[in-house]
Amino acid sequence: MKQKIFSLLLVLALLVAIEPFARAQSGFIGIFDEQGDVGVVKHKGTGSFNPKTQEYNLSGSGTNIWAKADGFHFVWKKMKGDFILRTNAAFIGKGVEDHRKIGFMVRTSLDSTSKQINAVVHGDGLTSLQFRKTDGGITEEKKSTVTHADVIQLERHGNKYIMSVARKGDLFTEDEVSDVDLGDDVYVGIFICSHNANVTEKAVFNNTRIVIPAPATLVPYKQYLGSNIEILDLATQNSTIVYQSPKSLQAPNWMLDGKNLLYNSDGLLYKFDLKTNTPTVFNTGSAKNNNNDHVLSFDGKWLTISSADQTGNSIGWIVPTTGGEPKRMTEIGPSYMHGWSPDGKYLVFCGARNKEYDVYRIPVAGGPEEKLTNTPGLDDGPEYSPDGKYIYFNSVRSGLMQVWRMKADGSEQTQLTNDDYNNWFPHISPDGKWIEYITFLKSEVAPGDHPFYKHVYLRVMPVEGGPSKVIAYLYGGQGTINTPSWSPDSKHLAFVSNTNLLFPVFPTATN
Q1: Quick one: pLDDT at residue 5?
Q2: Which of 81, 115, 288, 379 has the most Cβ atoms closer than 10 angstroms to its Cβ?
């Protein structure tokens, strides 16, 4: 009898021990390792991943994530060190409780009373950074000035956590705490809480990324992080990763057939088949030192590339899109090729002459180069509009790097952006309606620089000028969109993001 009582007590003890985290290991959950309910939850939660859309759908109940203990559904991965967590999250349906919650969370353990920090959006729109500094301690909160945030980012630097949130299309607003010690080995993931034990809520998470940023010891242009090639749908602003590599992949061009991309890596160009998600080397003949300035002609028959000659300077060349031995276009360098005229008669490029970088054009048929800008400071990234009337470029002449426009002969140079950021590489949509460009933070990057591995935005604005909106929030920079990356129908964009952590859920390069 005593033995039976002891056995029963042992079973009860084990049940109590595992109660705080009831695992639900069924199905494929993308970049995360496991999922389950944390704390006492009446209705079991679920989480699923759609490999095609790369969306996560969560359902869950739970009384709250607050005070001394939590109850919610969690989809997580174990991690160490610094990281950047980002997602677009939205509730499905009207919901019941104003304080139902979704977001990204970092926890020391899966116990309901664990130390934790979360970037959270509530059902009534309240957006905040919530944290519990000690096991079983009272949860504290920093409320954001942004409400109803669509984009949630949570970044860790040691014991400092930075929450960056935005409504879709807006720039980030930040809040941070610097003394939340969760230990190095933590659980990170997306979550949902209904704030009502009897209710199950649902939510969808898009653009969900876990980024391992560059370490402080990384040597620029000698050491590299891994790369994601992503395809962004302009209508939904949802992005899918179509290819990954531990190497540096840069500057995808969209070919005129709409079925292939071109990108550069390790001095070579690659043609990437969007149907099979596989790359093959693109033949550039003796040009084996290609960088990330390569542009297709408007008729899709030619490619201008930038490749170092025997002196080590970047030189402009052209090669047919069927591949072959390139023809040299510029006599001296550095010359970085950025655009074709729609009639195919001219190339425009950024050239360094007498230690000054300016915009030049040169006849494809041969002839002397012509200088189109002459102000002190860097002028870069020239690209023709589809009607051939204008050349868009970026210039540092007004202090920060901004987007400019001039007529095709270099006259009437006009500033189009004028904000507190550094804006680079304007690319005009094939339908001539929009300008895409990349934005660097002036707190991270000098006006005349566009390095790898920074917090950047991709933004679009009307081609005639006007308000800009963010279409992608990412970790990237150099190589993200150095070249035109619009799809032929102007509905999608290709770009490169970076991380030191690749996930087997996506196609991964080995070469």
Answers
A1: 36
A2: 379
